Amino acid sequence: MIKSILAAAAVMFTVGTAQAQTFEGATARFEFLHYDDGAGFTLSQVNAGADAAFRFSSGFGVQVGVNGMTEVASSDPFLTFQTIGGVAVHNFYDVSGTTRLGALVAYDTFNGGDWFLGAEATYVSGPWRLEARGGHYFSSVEPAWLLEASGSYAVSDRFRLRGYLRNIDYGAGFGYYRLAGVGASVAVTDQISFYGDYALMWNDFGKPPVYRGSVISAGLTFRLDGAGDSDRMFTYKPYY
To answer: Which residues are the signal sequence here (predicted)?
Structure first.
């Protein structure tokens, strides 16, 4: 499945080269995440991902990303740790110098293989960066709808405040998973930034109780700007 998506991305890139094609930028991310359900269960994982984006003279473009996660610690001594990988392809169109619209198809190996199809947008202007996404996880185990939004504000050239909301709804009485987080990032160079986020978490498995806990994440990002601005690139994080 992953090979099929990468092959499709290669076809789109080849078609795009019939026009003037420009390397916009690339990003990489390494993150440590700690989940606490508020009732005694904890789980820690390490996430990593990388993306590259290309724009064509027509205003269209493509962004391709790979990602992975491995669980590294838990309060449950009998838990079998998972390692999951995935790939995502974003087709986008720049409506203006500040607004980008995109369509996303992604696949990961969670639950034996999940597909995600969605629509997304970014808005970058002055100190503001906003991003929103909605779509559906196609899964034989946990099909769900996703709706999320994030934003950041540059207090200075090196320091940004950030926040996000995420809702995953399983429907049909099977519950939901929700996050509301705030954080900050510090750029130590033009390419490298460190960040930390704290989120309140609500996890409903379709029957009482609803777990109310937290998710703490910290990591670093690396950006390489080409002819464009990598701030406009999408920042899709799969749900494992």
So the answer is: 1-20
Instruction: Count the neighbouring beta carbons within 10 Å of the beta carbon of residue 96.
Output: 9
pTM score of the predicted model: 0.89
CATH H-level superfamily of 2-232? monomeric porin ompg (2.40.160.40)
Which residues are paired to 51 by β-bridges? Answer: 27, 65
For the chain (length 240 residues), average pLDDT per consecutive 10? 49 49 93 97 98 92 97 95 96 96 96 94 97 96 95 97 98 91 97 98 93 98 81 88
The answer to whether residues 88 and 102 touch, using CB atoms and an 8 Å cutoff, is no
H or E segment and range at residue 11: helix 2-16
Q: Closest Cα to residue 30, out of 194, 239, 195, 220? A: 220
84, 107 Cβ separation under 8 angstroms: no
Are the CB atoms for 230 and 215 separated by under 8 Å?
A: no
Query: β-strands 99-108, 211-225: how paired?
Result: unpaired
Specify the DSSP class assigned to residue 195: E
Q: Are the C-beta atoms of residues 64 and 27 closer than 8 Å to each other? A: no
The contacts of residue 75 (CB under 8 Å, 6+ apart) are 40, 41, 42, 43
Which residues share a beta bridge with 48?
30, 68
- Residue-wise burial string across 15-51, b where 16 or more C-beta atoms lie within 10 A, e elsewhere: ebeeeebbebbbbbbebebebbbbeeeebbbbbebeb
User: Radius of gyration (Cα) for the chain, nearest Å?
Assistant: 18
Three-point CA angle 14, 16, 20, nearest 5° = 120
- What's the rounded Cα separation, in Å, for the pair 147 and 224? 28
As a whole number of angstroms, the distance between CA 191 and CA 165 comes to 26
